[in-house]
Amino acid sequence: MIDCIFCKIINRELPASIIHEDDQVIAFMDIQPVNPGHILVVPKVHREFIAELDEDLTSRMFNVAAKINLAIRKSDIRSEGINYFLADGEAAGQEVFHTHLHIFPRFRNDGFGLRFNENYKSLPEREELDKICGTIRSLLE
């Protein structure tokens, strides 16, 4: 993709602080970090949504993320926990339309968080959960 910032990083048209690279994925520092140590794991093939990746590539992204998680925990980077975040589509908060997995260290009162609506605490009826479950399960490949 000619205008994709991640494709430009992969092709070395833009600079990046690269943590890991292999034939399938690249991982580099986020230039707008939630906290120090915020890293992106990006497939080298341009795909907008994670469902467009094959299972092996999706697995590779998460395997690399797990190794980076361990490295962060071993480091002196402030981290009481680690978040993985993957926004899949604009409504989910995706801003760069090339699949990417965020890994970022977390600590108490770091200022980051998810905001839930007022209905979050209300529990749906089991029948509703079963209906949604059945719909999704029937479409699994």
Q: Mind telling me the CATH superfamily name? A: HIT-like
The portion of residues forming beta strands comes to 15-25%
* Spans where pLDDT lies below 50 across 5 or more residues: none
Reported by name, the CATH topology is HIT family, subunit A
Quaternary organization: single chain
Major β-sheet profile: 5 strands, antiparallel
Overall CATH class:
Alpha Beta
Mean pLDDT: 95
CATH architecture call? 2-Layer Sandwich
What's the short story on this structure?
GO terms for molecular function: catalytic activity. The protein is α+β, with helices and mostly antiparallel strands and 141 residues long.
Attribute tags:
141 residues, alpha+beta, HIT family, subunit A, five-stranded antiparallel sheet, 3 helices, globular, HINT, HIT domain-containing protein, catalytic activity, HIT-like_sf, Histidine_triad_CS
Description:
With 141 residues, the protein is an alpha+beta fold. It is built from three helices and five strands, in the order H-E-E-E-H-E-E-H. It has helices at residues 5-10, 55-74, 126-139, and strands at residues 18-21, 25-29, 39-43, 81-85, 101-106. It has a five-stranded antiparallel sheet, with helices on one face. A hairpin with a 3-residue loop joins strand 1 (18-21) and strand 2. The two termini are 28 Å apart. The mean pLDDT is 95.
